[in-house]
User: What shape does this take?
Amino acid sequence: QVQLVESGGNLVQAGGSLRLSCAASGDTICIDAMAWYRQAPGKERELVAAISYFTYYSDSVKGRFTISRDNAKNTVFLQMNGLKPEDTAVYYCNASPVDRDCSTHDWWGQGTQVTVSS
Assistant: This one.
């Protein structure tokens, strides 16, 4: 099993910055890719950024957000610059397993609230 704990969510003004962290513990050797998702009220959860041997960004955050990973500390970060009110959401950390022997499903954190005021 893998446990994910997010931190760093806060209330910030438009144009500001935040850095989210997600610390993984447990069977971290089983983790392949890690990612950040977000879910705004009344909307579906959406993929924001992912990192493995590649990095991926959704069009809505490309150029403003940066995902990074410290494998030694089993931690993934999301640096968010130029925040907009539409970035307001609960942000969830996600980790996918290397193979089915490790897990048949992804692991999720509990979420951290990001609120951007205009």
